[in-house]
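Posting for a labmate who doesn't have an account.
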Amino acid sequence: MLHELWDDPEDESRYTFCLAGPQGDQARSMLSTSAPVTWTVEADSHFHAMTLYYEHMGWGTYTTDQEWDRRTYAEHGWE
């Protein structure tokens, strides 16, 4: 599924990384009108998306202890 990274200069946390399409509507609704999409990436699970996001941001290795993070979006019924 497609994910989007938004850079919102009017938000103190600055970055929003969310699913494109309807699953990300709520996250995008909190962005200011000046926030652009700065990066997009395809991933088949939350873990995969966050791993790519951490690599893109230079934050090191993404880790999680949540088993559901590794389930594919298809397994969640989202595709």
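Reply:
Got it, the structure tokens are right above this. The mean pLDDT is 96.
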